[in-house]
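Objective 1b of the project was to move from sequence-level analysis to a structural picture of ligand recognition. The entry below was assembled by the postdoctoral researcher (A.K.) and checked by the PI before modelling. It contains the amino acid sequence of the target and the SMILES of the bound compound, flavin-adenine dinucleotide.
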Amino acid sequence: MATPNTVELPAERVPVIAACDVLVVGGGSAGLSAAIAARRQGADVILVERYGYLGGLASGGLIVLLLTLDDGAGNQVVAGLCQELVDRLQARDACFHPPKTEWGDTDDELIERYRRWGLVWGSAPHKVRYSVAYDPEEFKLVANTWVAETGVRLMYHRWASDVVRDGDRVTHVVFTSKAGRQAIACGAVIDTTGDGDIFALAGEPFELEEIHPWLWFRMAGVDDSESAPGGSIRTIRPGQALLPWGAAERISRRIDATNPDDLTFAEVECRRMVMEEVDRLRSQVPGFENAYLTDVSLTPDVTESRRLTGRYVLARDDMDAPFEDVIAVTGHWTKYDCTYQIPFRSLLPQRTANLLAAGRCISVDHRVHHATKEIPACFATGEAAGVAAAMSLASNQAPADLATAELQRALRKAGVWLPK
Ligand SMILES: Cc1cc2nc3c(=O)[nH]c(=O)nc-3n(C[C@H](O)[C@H](O)[C@H](O)COP(=O)(O)OP(=O)(O)OC[C@H]3O[C@@H](n4cnc5c(N)ncnc54)[C@H](O)[C@@H]3O)c2cc1C
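Corresponding predicted holo structure:
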């Protein structure tokens, strides 16, 4: 039977189910941080997430290493809400990191110890980093509690599928769920979907990267008393190992993470290959004889997809460069003694006045993305976007028109580290 290429949908009136000052779409690291930051500035905030947990890749994706909160020279450069996350996890005995006295240390034994925890990467000569290993289930619990305590209105199980515009503003975001299509009205919207779904729907320009998928998994019952068997990473639970499975050497095909057919391929093929890897580890690798699979990333782990082409595209040559409108700083997880200052313009789209981006989809080039996609950096850009969105509404101006010095003052007051 020949099928037509398109169908026409009838025009539809969509119910507006809520209104808020700041609407944060996507509950990963950046979205969690943006929502809490905006709420603490006094804004009425709704945080919408398509799944039923917060953290995105940092919890459901089993990417359970904060790399890194330092500059690779022993100095902390990401603080604020990311540090508060560490404190909250610490209070539940749910994370592990080198003590401050060891940051920047070059002692070989210490470095080997932390390498086994997945906290040292890149090439020698190495130093001890301020990086953190944590438990993903505890992350989810901490995040739910944190959001509730702060007074953020949390909405799970809604998938952003459209935006409504009025001139250069987004007035509503439309969500699809089992309840049908519903809209939420907002004063400002922060795109923390990782894939930049909102700025794409709003018609903003972006770059799209195709990547080799990953699928991290964990096994328990591992005898890890001697070394890191099978290239595994220690976790905070005795006998449980993290296996960072994936990349070009494992799976040759690149995928476009905004294409559901590519994602379907990655789900099926990566899970099949992970099963083979589990069998290989158990039958061939000493230490894994009695090991068993406990969990696999809930979705393919996607390093990169859409990146906003915003008011400034932070580029590789900007390493260590100062920016007058700096709103966050990040180190590099494979490099020592260097930082990127992230300018506010890297969170701002070119046209839409009340939209900001945060997390792994901000306006940077492919190289800089290696640094800005990391969880601490996502927390930092999320926090800046949240504070800026709330301040812009309180002062009745577009985020782009905010006085940078005032934004920086508010961020410092909230505990964010920024250069003098
Ligand atoms: C293989 C791999 C290894 C990595 N290793 C590390 C590491 O060791 N340390 C480190 O710090 N970082 C690492 N990273 C980077 C880091 O994990 C991510 O870049 C970071 O967690 C991204 O955070 P985010 O909030 O920007 O996006 P995400 O975590 O992707 O969160 C986006 C959220 O938005 C939701 N969402 C998406 N679309 C919609 C929609 N339309 N409607 C509603 N909700 C939506 C998603 O469900 C998700 O919860 C790694 C990444 C990968 C893939």
